[in-house]
Write a structure and sequence with these properties.
153 residues; alpha+beta; PH-domain like; 3-stranded antiparallel beta sheet; 3 helices; 7 strands; elongated
Length: 153
């Protein structure tokens, strides 16, 4: 979510701006410039750290609320010529079918592929869960979605 929605950009810019202002304050060599620079550096680095900490904390709280256990089977993803089909393994409901051209993004992390159907919904394809090696699955996604929609993290 941080990369797809670019939620990391504003905290990073904030930190860079305050660090730049702190550096300018130090370069003026006026009385109290060291104190002003220290405050700017602390706020510029502290607030983004709090922001990211809260983000990851909320992700963990949501996982606990939904009682998501490791290794629990939630859905099955089928990659076909026509698109992606997702079958819910916990509820009896119709399968979600998304054509390749409507797929939003795919990210390849160290041990998982994040397959985004839209900006708010992603399906995780953990390494070792598919009937093919992760690299072959990734190449299949690139062939059907294109290089622009597939990113290695």
């Amino acid at each position: 979510m941080l990369r797809l929605r670019k939620k990391w950009v504003k905290p990073a810019l904030f930190a860079l701006m305050l660090a730049a202002f702190g550096t300018v304050a130090l370069l003026t060599r006026k009385p109290q410039s060291g104190l002003i620079a220290a405050v700017l550096y602390a706020v510029g680095l502290g607030l983004p750290l709090v922001y990211f900490g809260m983000f990851f904390s909320q992700v963990n709280v949501q996982a606990m609320r939904r009682k998501l256990d490791k290794g629990r089977r939630v859905y099955t993803v089928f990659l076909t010529r026509d698109g992606v089909t997702v079958q819910n393994d916990q509820k009896k409901e119709d399968a979600l079918v998304v054509p390749w051209k409507e797929m939003q993004r795919a990210f390849l992390a160290k041990k998982c592929i994040y397959l985004y159907v839209n900006a708010a919904r992603a399906f995780l394809l953990p390494e070792g869960q598919a009937s093919a090696p992760q690299e072959k699955v990734w190449q299949y996604l690139i062939r059907h979605m294109g290089d622009r929609k597939c990113t290695r993290l």
